[in-house]
Design goal:
Blueprint (H helix, E strand, L loop, with lengths): L1 E4 L4 E5 L6 H17 L7 E4 L3 E5 L8 H12 L12 E6 L6 H8 L3 H10 L2 E6 L6 E5 L5 H8 L8 E4 L3 E5 L2 E4 L4 E3 L2 E5 L20 E6 L2
Parallel strand pairs: 5-13
Antiparallel strand pairs: 1-2, 2-4, 3-4, 6-7, 6-13, 8-11, 9-10, 9-12
Helix pairs in contact: 1-2, 3-4, 4-5
Protein name: Allophanate hydrolase
Organism: Gordonia iterans
InterPro entries: CT_C_D, Cyclophilin-like_dom_sf, PxpB
C-alpha cells in the first residue's frame, strides 16, 4: 500500500501493488469505516475505487495518518471484526435477453447459456459508485467460482458505444458488472434487464446499491 497526498484533510491509499487491488481497497474501506464507527478513528468517510481509497476528515481537522495506519494494521490481524462483514445481500432478478449475450459467449469461448449461468454464479460485490447516480461497479467477490469469474475477467468494452442504454439494463465489461440506473450512453455488453429500480428519488436512500454490498443475480423467468 502507498500513501499519496490529497491535501491536509485527506489521504489517498493506493493498493495497485496488491495481488487483488479491488479486494484490498474494499477491505480497507470497510475497516476504516468500522474504526470510525467504533470511535477509534476520526474520519468523515472512506471512499473506495477500483484500487484506491480516499480517506477524508472534516475540513480543517487534518487527517490522522498514523490513526489510519493503526486501523489498517488492526484489520489485517483481525482486531476489527466488521471489516470482513458485507453490508447486505441484494437479490436482483434478471431477464437474460441482452443483445450482447452471443458476443460475450463468443469472446469467452462458451455458450450464451454458460454466460448466464456464470453471471448468476458469481457473488458480485459493489466495489464503488460512479458514472451516474445509483451506478455501482460490481466485481466478483470472495467465494465466486473461478470458472465463472473467468468468463468476465478478460471481457473488454464494446468497440462502439451505444448512444442510449435503457434504464435497468444489466451489463458487463472490463471485469465488472453493473445495472444502468437510467437511460444513458454506454459501451458495456448487455446481458439482460431488471425491473428493480436502482435509483429512486422517493426512496431513502435513493440508491439501491452502496459500496460493500453483495449482489446476487437470479433469473426473473
Amino acid at each position: 500500500m502507498r500513501e499519496l497526498p490529497a491535501g491536509d484533510d485527506a489521504v489517498l491509499l493506493d493498493f495497485s501493488g496488491e495481488a487483488d487491488p479491488a479486494a484490498a481497497a474494499a477491505h480497507a474501506a470497510r475497516a476504516l469505516r468500522a474504526a470510525a464507527e467504533a470511535g477509534i478513528l476520526d474520519i468523515a468517510e472512506a471512499v473506495p475505487t477500483a484500487f484506491t481509497v480516499l480517506v477524508e476528515t472534516s475540513p480543517g481537522r487534518g487527517i490522522d495518518r498514523l490513526g489510519v495506519r493503526r486501523a489498517l494494521r488492526s484489520a489485517r490481524i483481525g482486531d476489527v471484526a466488521p471489516a470482513d462483514v458485507e453490508s447486505g445481500e441484494i437479490v436482483v432478478p434478471v431477464t437474460y435477453d441482452g443483445e450482447d449475450l452471443d458476443a460475450v459467449a463468443e469472446r469467452a469461448g462458451t455458450s450464451r447459456e454458460a454466460v448466464i449461468a456464470a453471471h448468476r454464479a458469481v457473488r458480485w460485490r459493489v466495489q464503488f459508485m460512479g458514472f451516474a447516480p445509483g451506478f455501482g461497479y460490481l466485481v466478483p467477490g470472495p467465494g465466486s467460482p473461478p470458472d465463472a469469474r473467468s468468463v468476465f475477467a478478460a471481457l473488454s468494452r464494446r468497440e462502439q458505444s451505444r448512444p442510449a442504454v435503457p434504464a435497468g439494463s444489466v451489463a458487463a465489461a472490463a471485469g465488472y458488472s453493473a445495472i444502468y440506473p437510467r437511460t444513458s450512453p454506454g459501451g458495456w455488453f448487455l446481458l439482460g434487464h431488471t425491473d428493480i429500480p436502482v435509483w429512486n428519488l422517493k426512496a431513502d436512500p435513493p440508491a439501491l446499491l452502496s459500496a460493500g454490498a453483495t449482489v446476487r443475480f437470479t433469473c426473473a423467468d
